[in-house]
Amino acid sequence: xxxxxxxxxxxxxxxxxxxxxxxxxxxxxxxxxxxxxxxxxxxxxxxxxxxxxxxxxxxxxxxxxxxxxxxxxxxx
Length: 76
Hints:
Elements: H1 2-29, H2 34-47, H3 50-56, H4 60-70
Helix pairs in contact: 1-2
């Protein structure tokens, strides 16, 4: 049963990664697009949350830093 919960946790995190990447790419094209900005901000709050830490045991801020580096975002 524990394996089921681990798969769910991985799916949640991977969806957050996909949502974050999608929103960042949309914002590169349209910097004032509110729905994309809201999604990006929500994902970033998730990565920095206690819930993320409980799901993964990983440092969400570090993962977010790596995602930003992949997207060429260095100024934040």
